[in-house]
């Protein structure tokens, strides 16, 4: 289905902002522009839900969560950044593996199965996008993903 991403992203963020979350400040840096993508809306919502809930779950000391939507090489680039505990550099790529959770002891009391990002990767790749993470232990994490933009053909008069 054809979806304008910025509007959809805003609605997902609104839902998180309205529910229980008072420990984080939300900062939106969404391009003032329409980004049309051809997506399975429910599945992309599932990806966003996991990334945003991770940012909240793994930010025990609070901090700001920053949401961005911009373009990168004719693709849509989406990112969610937190100022939480971060992920050790040597394991940052493993978080997309099934059942991988950083430091079992640390995350035992934080609920989860370790499947969220593995499913997110499957969904994004099935949309011909890519997903990756940047993280610094003790500083925070950014999850990025891309999606192909629908080519806006210039209309001839
Ligand atoms: P689930 O999403 O299945 O409920 P989960 O959140 O543990 O469980 P993933 O979303 O796949 O699983 O994330 C895998 C692991 O990556 C997490 O357990 C956590 O250790 C680490 N991780 C993910 N996002 C962050 C983040 N924003 N900050 C720090 N660590 C993170
Ligand atoms: Mg998760």
TrEMBL record:
Domain Histidine kinase: 1-151
Signal peptide span: none
Subcellular location: Cell membrane
UniProt name for this protein: histidine kinase
Organism this protein belongs to: Halobacillus seohaensis
